[in-house]
Specification:
The chain is 5% helix and 44% strand. The chain is mainly beta. The relative contact order is 0.08.
């Protein structure tokens, strides 16, 4: 029996081989303006046709610049978590249903034109993306610099040389590119020399009306009054539209991203959903070095993981200049909108930027939460059947009919407000040796019950909270409670220079609980030392270091706090440690 099996394995391996596909062999030369999109589509079709089980594939680019255009891009209907659900997407490189493929840019720059999703990797296993950068020829964020600011004449600013713009008939500043035009509505202000977010400015209101051009590329808005925007201040003017990330992963297993840099994307840098085991090493959402004239990177988060499992490892990264967090890891609560019978519920994706993709599978473990108090209700359960309820197919669905193994607690109904959390699609996390700096909003967000280690990172002027442990079944509907978190050996430098959502302290443990007074249980923790914060260094100009709400089991020990005078204290929270409904806490 064993001899026959050995012979079978040997015969399979004889067929397997290493195959190298070079883009130059398909007529795509480095540093030409030729559209790379149709060439890559043709190559991927050939790779799929040639593939034999066990093959290891390398798709490689000779070092240089490659351009991708909307016109001949691959067209796909993708529903991407935490993005605007606009379809179809124009995809530069669409990698689908591949095994053991390595895309090696060998240090190349991939430049995208128009409104595109640069790279997608779907339904694939054992794939590696490495050694390339992503950028857009004409970013959708517009950079300007304040030239003059007076009470009488408002603000005069100069538009960066790469920005295409016009003044509309109704005196509005409009930016435009290949196939798109925008009217910025808000801004983020950067210090010219340090590229820090300007102190106490947060989201800068931008009154985009009454714009007058007073000289080539110099504009004035007399009604724009903001004395914090001193001459020299650089402002990234933007909308809140986020149609697509730089890299999209979905339904993948064992994916690696090595030495990949995203310099701009109109959504997040990387969005991964329903995937298992993802490693980022040397990944960056960053500028092109100290001489880069830009101050901004992505329109939203640098990296974002929604409904993933296995391990998420993110190390040796640089995250700067983005308009939101460096990393956010969570699942999604489905709101119970109908109780069909004792074992069957209808659950609905609630947020307008998170729907249309798979939520769970038969065999997945789930639990239920009351939205108003964020308390667990009833016992854990298991899915026996799940199917779309408002659509024939999963793609594009917002509602699911879910049948469970055991009867659902009798109190769970559509009227009282309950969420369903998928516990199977939750990951372990290692976030280590990264630099996060000069970004809007927050540094790192974690919402997973599995072991989470955050160590040896530098959080340098993150502008808002550096680390947030959250959980919300009322707004974004992002699950869930943290049970095993270690935050150690990190260095925090002047966080909280601005106010954004959930920015109550340098480290905020802040689940969204509308009715905290009625809560009987606790949301985060649940075991002694469930959340440990130790051996960190805090350099700060203001008071709040730790805020925690609804936690059972919190340790803060062996941390160093140094006070500086680089900014004037302004935070409403005047306490070093502010704890609301916290038990079994040790601060030492």
């Amino acid at each position: 029996m064993s001899i026959v099996l050995w012979g079978f394995l040997f015969s399979v391996n004889v067929c397997a081989t290493d195959r190298v596909y070079d883009v130059s062999d398909f007529g795509l030369k480095a540093n030409s303006k030729k559209d790379a999109s149709p060439v890559l589509r043709k190559m991927l079709e050939k790779i799929r046709k040639d593939y034999q089980e066990g093959d290891k594939i390398v798709l490689q680019f000779p070092t240089g610049r490659y351009h991708f255009y909307e016109k001949n891009a691959t067209v796909r209907e993708y529903y991407i978590s935490n993005h605007d659900q606009t379809n179809p997407k124009k995809v530069g490189i669409a990698i689908e249903e591949m095994k053991n493929l390595t895309l090696d840019g060998q240090g190349s720059e991939f430049i995208f034109h128009g409104r595109m999703l640069p790279i997608s990797l779907l339904h694939s296993e054992g794939c590696v993306l490495k050694n390339f950068s992503i950028d857009f020829e004409n970013p959708h964020i517009s950079q300007v610099q304040v030239i003059e600011n007076t009470p009488e004449n408002g603000i005069t600013f100069e538009v960066a040389p790469w920005v295409n713009y016009r003044i509309s008939k109704d005196s509005v500043f409009e930016t435009l590119g290949e196939g798109w035009e925008l009217r910025p509505s808000s801004g983020i202000a950067f210090e010219a020399q340090t590229k820090h977010i300007v102190y106490n400015t947060s989201d800068v209101p931008y009154p985009n009306k009454g714009v007058v051009q007073i000289a080539p590329r110099r504009l004035n808005i007399k009604s724009w009054k903001n004395n914090r925007l001193i001459p020299g201040t650089v402002i990234a003017l933007r909308t809140y539209f986020r149609p697509a990330p730089g890299i999209f992963l979905s339904h993948d297993i064992n994916t690696q991203l090595l030495n990949v840099k995203v310099h701009y994307a109109e959504g997040m840098g990387l969005l991964a959903q329903m995937s298992e085991n993802i490693t980022l090493d040397g990944f960056g959402v960053c500028l092109k070095g100290n001489d880069d004239p830009r101050y901004f990177t992505t329109q939203a988060d640098a990296t974002h993981f929604s409904g993933c499992k296995g391990q998420i490892i993110s190390r040796n990264g640089l995250y700067e200049g983005m308009m939101d967090d460096a990393i956010n890891i969570h699942g999604t609560y489905l709101k119970v909108v109908k109780r069909v019978n004792d074992r069957t519920l209808i659950g609905r994706y609630m947020h307008d930027q998170t729907w249309g993709f798979e939520w769970g599978r038969p065999g997945d473990d789930v639990q239920f939460v009351r939205s108003s108090t964020m308390e667990l209700i009833g016992e854990q359960n298991r899915i026996t059947e799940i199917r779309p309820y408002d659509k024939e197919n999963i793609q594009g669905a917002r509602e699911f009919r879910i049948t469970f193994r055991d009867p659902v607690d009798a109190s769970i109904d559509a009227e009282s407000g309950f969420g369903i959390e998928n516990l199977t699609w939750t990951p372990e996390v290692l976030f280590a040796d990264n630099v996060i700096r000069n970004n809007r909003a927050r540094g790192a967000l974690f919402s997973t019950p599995k072991k989470t280690i955050v160590e040896n990172n530098l959080f340098d002027h993150t502008s808002g909270t550096a680390i947030l442990l959250c959980g919300d079944c009322n707004g974004w509907y992002e699950t869930g409670a943290c049970r095993n978190v270690i935050i150690r050996k990190n260095h925090f430098v002047n966080a909280l220079t601005n106010m954004f959502q959930f920015t109550n302290a340098v480290i905020s443990i802040y689940p969204e609980i509308p009715d905290l007074e009625s809560q009987q249980k606790y949301f985060h923790g649940g075991v002694e030392g469930g959340i440990v914060i130790e051996d960190n260094e805090f350099d700060t100009f203001d008071a709040p270091i730790l805020y925690a709400k609804s936690v059972d089991g919190l340790i803060f020990r062996n941390n160093t706090i140094r006070l500086n005078t680089e900014y004037k204290p302004f935070h409403w929270n005047k306490s070093r440690f502010l704890l609301e409904r916290v038990t079994n806490a040790h601060i030492e």
